[in-house]
Amino acid sequence: MNYFERLNAVNVNEHAEKKNGLTYLSWAWAWAEVKKAYPEATYKIYENEVGWFYHTDGKTAWVKTGVTVEGIEHIEYLPVMDYRNKSIPVDNITSFDVNKAIQRSLTKACARHGLGLYIYAGEDLPEDATASTEFSRPELMDKVEALMDAKGVPIEEILKMGKIDHLAELDDNRLKELIKWLEVQ
């Protein structure tokens, strides 16, 4: 099993929290899991040209972090955002906002190595990307079942919502729509 498969196999559900309709994983827990599995793992917070821990275009700001596992670095860029996940104008940014963005960015960089990656599934895809991606019917059914388990959505709720008796009654397009819906729950 390679390092990605090992980290990707970790179930993070009991450590994830929901806020404003999004799922978050504690940076401290994520980093601890990476270090337990790979003690040599490192992270880096990239500074801008003047030594600040955020980068700016003069309007908004973002942070850049990297996590290295087994010699492979994955870099994550994340906007500095408020509690509604909206970019904060650069003149209103505090050190607290930057620190929060750094910790979230580190968590996402860990996810690029596999840990909790399924939390972010579909986050950066265009609206219709799921529909244009070709999956076999068994893969679609597996994805639906995995998302129902991960999100804690009972099968009865899905059946009632779809006015069906069995998931197999849904055609591929309706399964794809269901996947999109489950991803944002």
| Count of helix runs | 7
Strand content: 15-25%
The N- to C-terminal Cα distance equals 31 Å
- Based on the coordinates given, report the CATH architecture of the largest domain: 2-Layer Sandwich
CATH C-level of the largest domain: Alpha Beta
At the fourth level of CATH, the homologous superfamily of the largest domain is: DNA repair protein Rad52/59/22
Uncertain regions spanning at least 5 consecutive residues: 123-133
Order of helices and strands: HEEHEEEEHHHHH
Q: How helical, in percent, are the residues? A: 40-55%
Q: Characterize the largest beta sheet: strand count, sense, and whether it forms a barrel.
A: 4 strands, antiparallel
Tally of DSSP β-strands: 6
Task: Tell me the radius of gyration.
Answer: 19 Å
Tally of structural domains: 2
Question: What characteristic shape results from the CA principal axes?
Answer: globular
Task: Write down the CATH topology of the largest domain.
Answer: Enolase-like, domain 1
Structural class, from helix and strand content? alpha+beta
Mean pLDDT: 85
